[in-house]
Amino acid sequence: SQPLPIALVGEAILKEHAIEVRDFDTALSQLAEQMALSMVAANGVGIAAPQVHSPLALFIMASRPNERYPDAPLMDPVVVVNPQILSASAELVSGEEGCLSVPGQRFSIWRHQTIVVRYQDLAGHWQQTELTGFIARIFQHEFDHLQGITLLERSQ
Ligand SMILES: O=C(NO)N[C@@H](Cc1ccccc1)C(=O)O
Ligand SMILES: [Zn+2]
Fold first, then answer.
1. Which of 17, 18, 54, 101 could make a disulfide contact with 146, Cβ separation 3.0–4.6 Å?
2. Model confidence at 1: pLDDT above 80
């Protein structure tokens, strides 16, 4: 199967608030698979459903060292559905981010160093965990996309 086209900043889909996922069916799993394929094709470490023109509250985090982020920690890819940020550290950290919807550009962005998050997996089971550093950064970046926010609105 082919990677899905990725929406570019300026497209309306990237400004919309994502819709809560209610059906944890095979269509959802197939969408997640297509998103992962599209993310890898673009050398991404994360991707949100609106970026592949789907308005659902769903994203993938898949940090791994690559040429775009040589210092990225290695983690098993995580599919995040209906995410919530329960708490966020007062401590902020500035770091470099890219966005597949703003190709070829990098931005220096402030993010919370640590966040406690809750989300459902592809089976609909609730997960809760604390994230910190680059992985917390990816989560906040993707979570923003589900609120119709891109890093352009956060660039310092
Ligand atoms: O555009 C996306 N996801 O929405 N992908 C970004 C994700 C990201 C987030 C935070 C820091 C670095 C990178 C990417 O460059 O792979
Ligand atoms: Zn992005």
1. 18
2. no
Q: Are 89 and 112 in contact (CB under 8 A)?
A: yes
Confidence of residue 156 (pLDDT cuts 50, 70, 90): confident
DSSP 114: E
| Ligand 1 site, residue 137, Cβ cutoff 6 A | yes
| CA distances, 137 to each of 25, 66, 110, 123 (Å) | 29, 17, 9, 25
Tell me which of 11, 110, 115, 138 to substitute to probe ligand 1's pocket, judged by most ligand atoms within 8 Å of the beta carbon.
Answer: 138
Q: What is the ipTM of this complex?
A: 0.99
